[in-house]
Every structure is written in C-alpha cells, then in structure tokens.
User: Which sequence fits this backbone?
C-alpha cells in the first residue's frame, strides 16, 4: 500500500515590534477580509504586513495608539512587494498576538516616494511602484474577462499621464469602478508589466486609489484612440452563459457547487459555508441578429449583472434560466466595442418597439399592393 504524499511544511517565525499604519478592513479579489499594517522590527527596519484575521485589528489599533510593542508568533515571511525591505509579513487566524518589550524606540515609517511615469517607463517587469500621481485618459468602455489561476477576473485598461510620460494602466476588479476619465488620482503599490516591449502598469490587491487635485496635464499626441462603439438591436439567436462559483474565504473555484444547495464545503480550504455566501461570476458568448449581419460577441460578468439588476431579474437563479430569458426576448439592444466585447445590454423601449413593428407591417402591406 502506497504511503500518502507528505505536504510540504510551511515555515513560520516569530517577530516583535511596534505597529504602524493600521488600515481599515478591506476585501480581496476573492472577497476575503484583511487589513494592512506596518511592523517596525528594529530602529530603522519596517515591514509591510497583511493580516487575514480581521478580529485582530482592534488589538493592532490599540498597540498603535498606545505605542505598545507586540510579539507575533506563527507569521510567514514573503518576498517584499514594494521592494523597500527584505521581506513582507503574512498573518492569519493562527497567529498569536501578545504584548512584549523591545530594545528600541518607536519611529514613524518613511513616507512613500512619488515616482514619475518617465521613471516607471525605464523599469523592468515585476517592479513595485510605491506611488504615482497622474491623470486618467481614454478609459476603455468595456472590461474583459480573463482566467487567473482558473478563476475568471475582470480587467479594464486606461491611459494615464503625469506630464513626464504616458502609459497604459490595467485596472483589475474592485479598481474598475473607482476610476473615471479625465480625473486625477494617486495610485499606490502598482506593479510593472512589459507587453510588446512597452512598460505598462497594473493594479494589485494592495493598490490604493485616491482622488487628488486636478493635474495640469493633457493627453499626449499619438495616444491610443478611443475604442469605436457599435450597437445592434435584434433577437438573440444562440448563447452560452457560464457561471463560475468562488469561495468567499479563499477565492478558489468550486467545480462541484450546485445551485440548489443550502450548504457547501469549499474544495480548497474545506470550510463549510452557506450556499448563498459563495460568489457567482458570469461570462459567456451571444449571437445576435442585426438587420444586415449576425454578430458573435463576448459578454462579461459586469454587463450581465448590470442587465439583471436593471430589470430586476434576480429571480433567475441559474445560467439556464438566464439563457432562456434572453431567447424569449423578441429584441435586445446590444452595444459593443471593436473587439466584439459587450458593453451594455438593454431591452428596447416598449412604445418604440410597437411603433417599429407597425411601420414594418405597413411596409409589408404597401409592398404587397
């Protein structure tokens, strides 16, 4: 009989130090709750910390306010995300927190240094950018759905400029709705990517986005043109809607989830939870008939959920019911971009539809005469 495969042991450590910059509770892309902090482990040594145990936040706030050092047992060290220290620190519900003493005084962490986009354009891929201030231009009218480690995630692109250079910025998930065209923002903890030899920026789970005073910069000449928008109104001829269920605790995909289940155990973290707590992400393909031609379009979760909310269709519980709903509509108005991605789905105005049908019928009679 074969012996079971041993799981690799995750090394944990103990750290002691002062607590700084405790953030509010946040939600990751997988809807897991966490907060950030900075741990001072020596006179001039600071480390970013991510705490996946929201119940510890009050303890961290008290330690920060009172200047009390803490001893943190069962923490993990990871590669520094910002590159400003040797490592970052990960804490979870297994981490023990106790009051301690340390042989150094508390000091404020150094402030993030602002980087110009000209400096960013010379960086290699995978570099963390602590802070940039820029103006947003040419926000893509639609988002794309891409698979990241087996899970569908939404991304939207825009152009940014700070007067020194202009770059493309990829906005992921929660950051998509925070950014508007022609507004100025401070972005922290972005990451660089290189695509077709050009440096781009992308948001990360740690990215913060705040509005700043309008920057006196204009869009550079030769920047990317706005995507062309097209629309078609007609019947949905065929479609496939896919639903990916994600665990709200660890974000992993659930292949065995059933729509009618009251409780479900996550396949990855093994936590039993209520079925309605799991996250549904929709995507798919639709074929719509226009007056002159047929269009095959990709549709994202954002477009589908906006349609469902607009027309109060939350009672459509599974993808089959959603598909049947679209097939039952005599006409759907679809806006899409030049990459055949659906931007908006609308039901036609009833009065306008009746008028169009009457006009078409009158035309048939006159041609018959």
Assistant:
């Amino acid at each position: 009989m074969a012996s079971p495969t041993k799981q690799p042991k995750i090394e944990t450590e103990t750290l002691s130090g002062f607590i700084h910059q405790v953030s509010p509770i946040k939600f990751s892309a997988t809807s897991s709750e966490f907060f950030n902090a900075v741990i001072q482990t020596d006179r001039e040594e600071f480390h970013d910390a991510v705490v996946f145990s929201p119940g510890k936040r009050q303890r961290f706030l008290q330690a920060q306010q009172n200047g009390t050092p803490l001893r943190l047992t069962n923490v993990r060290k990871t590669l520094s995300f910002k590159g400003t220290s040797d490592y970052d620190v990960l804490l979870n519900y297994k981490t023990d927190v106790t009051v301690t003493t340390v042989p150094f005084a508390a000091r404020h962490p150094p402030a993030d240094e602002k980087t110009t986009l000209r400096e960013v354009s010379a960086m290699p891929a995978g570099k963390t950018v602590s802070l940039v201030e820029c103006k947003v231009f040419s926000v893509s009218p639609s988002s794309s759905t891409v698979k990241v480690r087996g899970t569908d995630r939404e991304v939207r692109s825009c152009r940014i400029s700070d007067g020194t250079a202009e770059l493309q910025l990829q906005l992921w998930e929660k950051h998509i709705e925070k950014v508007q065209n022609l507004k100025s923002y401070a972005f922290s903890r972005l990451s660089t990517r290189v695509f077709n030899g050009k440096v781009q920026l992308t948001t990360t789970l740690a990215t913060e986005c705040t509005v700043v005073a309008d920057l006196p910069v204009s869009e550079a000449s030769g920047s990317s043109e706005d995507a062309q928008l097209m629309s078609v109104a007609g019947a949905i001829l065929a479609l496939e809607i896919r639903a990916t269920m994600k665990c709200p605790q660890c974000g992993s995909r659930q292949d065995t989830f059933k729509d009618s289940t009251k409780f479900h155990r996550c396949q990855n973290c093994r936590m039993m939870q209520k079925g309605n707590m799991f996250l549904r992400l929709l995507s798919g393909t639709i074929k719509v008939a226009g007056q002159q031609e047929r269009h095959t379009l990709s549709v994202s979760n954002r477009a589908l959920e906006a349609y469902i909310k607009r027309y109060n269709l939350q009672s459509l519980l599974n993808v089959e019911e959603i598909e049947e709903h679209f097939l039952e509509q005599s006409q759907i108005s679809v806006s899409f971009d030049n990459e055949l991605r659906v931007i908006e789905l609308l039901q036609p105005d009833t009065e306008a539809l009746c008028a169009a049908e009457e006009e078409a019928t009158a035309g048939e009679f006159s041609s018959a005469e």
About this structure: The first helix runs from residue 57 to 66. The chain is about 15% helix and 40% strand. Residues 221-226, 350-357, 360-369 have pLDDT under 50 and may be disordered. The first strand starts at residue 13 and ends at 20.
